[in-house]
Amino acid sequence: MADADDVRRLALALPHTVEIDSDGFDFRVANKGFVWSYPERRPGKPRVIRTDIAVLYVGDEAEKQALLLGEPDLFFTTPGYDGLPLVMLRLPRVDVGRLRELVTDAWQMRAPQELVADLEDAG
């Protein structure tokens, strides 16, 4: 079971990651978001920052659909994210090893190539 502290630890372990001030968590590389807490919006109610749900950048629609269809217990989406390469991840249902993989993949898709190469060389 993972939580917001795990997201923070894993994201900040990646090179050149910056945490943006927010009510939850919000991580960027090269000014591009790769993982943040889900800003839940319900009609007629104020927005609620859900730190038990991470929004992850996944790169493209094919990857998004593969995750949504392959693991519906972990991943979901909302109409607000239609057409965007983003999925929501239920943190209490994912183990830290899988979370590390997902956060690292999201970072790699958003980071400039030279940073990705530096990470791969270090690993």
Please state the CA-atom Rg, rounded to the nearest Å.
14 Å
Mean pLDDT, to the nearest integer, reads 92
| End-to-end gap | 25 Å
Task: Indicate the overall shape.
Answer: globular
Which ranges are low-confidence, i.e. pLDDT below 50, for 5 or more consecutive residues? none
The succession of helices and strands, N to C, reads: HEEEEHEEHH
Secondary structure tally: strands: 6
The percent range for strand residues is 25-35%
Question: Helical percent range?
Answer: 25-40%
Lateral arrangement of strands in the main beta sheet = 1-2-3-4-6-5
Largest sheet: 6 strands, antiparallel
Protein described:
Strand 3 (32-40) and strand 4 (48-57) form a beta hairpin. The mean pLDDT is 92. The protein has four helices and six strands; from the N terminus they run H-E-E-E-E-H-E-E-H-H. Strands 1-2-3-4-6-5 form a six-stranded antiparallel sheet. With 123 residues, the protein is an alpha+beta fold. It is globular.
Q: What is the fold's blueprint, element by element?
A:
Elements lengths: L3 H9 L4 E3 L6 E4 L2 E9 L7 E10 L3 H10 L4 E2 L9 E5 L5 H15 L2 H10 L1
Antiparallel strand pairs: 1-2, 2-3, 3-4, 4-6, 5-6
Helix pairs in contact: 1-3
